[in-house]
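Internal tracking record. Fields below are filled automatically when a chain is submitted to the structure queue. Please do not edit lines marked as system-generated. If the sequence contains nonstandard residues, flag them in the REMARKS field before resubmitting.
Queue: standard
Priority: normal
Entity type: single polypeptide chain
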Amino acid sequence: MLVIDINGTEFTAECHESEAPESVAAVRDLLPLESDLLHVRWSGIATWINIDEIDLPEIPRENHTVYPSRGDLLLYPGYRNEQEILFACGPTCFKSPAGELAGNHFASVNATAAELKAIERLTLRDGSQPVTIRSSSE
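SYSTEM-GENERATED OUTPUT FOLLOWS
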């Protein structure tokens, strides 16, 4: 289980170890992750964390999707665009200036639709928000 702290508000997320084992392992290796949560530019009702400066191992496509569901966390290891973690907060089509992207669905956030929409609105209205992702055992 992961804990996601967005500007003082905490959520938990269930990892999908059997569906995306290499993605889950790669994310766990970079924890705790302290960064900024940004509003997406191209993908709809979602936010993202730029992890382009992190040296990820080679990760295959696993449990990948272009259309994540509300609360899905996708790891995009940079096949055609910058590395990132996408946090879907509502209807989302994962894309960039390079076109549609398929990210590895590695975890799902335990939050209501209203809570997720509030996160997306906050980043849209107020800009980037501090975010920390850590293991629930830390």
